[in-house]
Write a structure and sequence with these properties.
This protein is an alpha+beta fold and 80 residues long. It has one helix and five strands. It has one helix spanning 28-45, and strands at residues 2-9, 14-15, 21-23, 54-59, 64-69.
Length: 80
C-alpha cells in the first residue's frame, strides 16, 4: 500500500487533498471513480451538473498516476 492524494481540479481552481489515502495501486481507478460520482451526486442534488472537473491522483512524490474527467465518470442517455 502507498499514500495517494485525490486532488479536484476544474481548469481554474484546485482543491488539494491534504491527507491522502493508503491504497493499492490497483484500487486507484475505482476509488477515483467513486469519488467523482459522489461529488457529481451531491452537485445534482443542488440542481447543477459540472462535467468540467477532474480528479488527479498523485503519489507521495507528487507525480500524477491517474486522472479521471468527470465526463468519463457517467453515461448520459438523452431521450429519443
Amino acid at each position: 500500500m502507498s499514500l495517494y492524494f485525490f486532488h479536484l481540479r476544474d481548469g481554474v481552481d484546485l482543491i488539494l487533498d491534504e491527507e491522502g489515502r493508503m491504497l493499492e495501486l490497483s484500487a486507484l481507478a475505482d476509488a477515483a471513480l467513486k469519488e467523482a460520482r459522489s461529488i457529481i451526486s451531491a452537485d445534482i442534488l443542488t440542481g447543477h451538473l459540472r462535467l468540467d472537473q477532474r480528479i488527479d491522483v498523485e503519489d507521495e512524490f507528487h507525480a500524477v498516476v491517474h486522472s479521471l474527467d468527470f465526463a468519463d465518470a457517467i453515461a448520459i442517455t438523452a431521450p429519443d
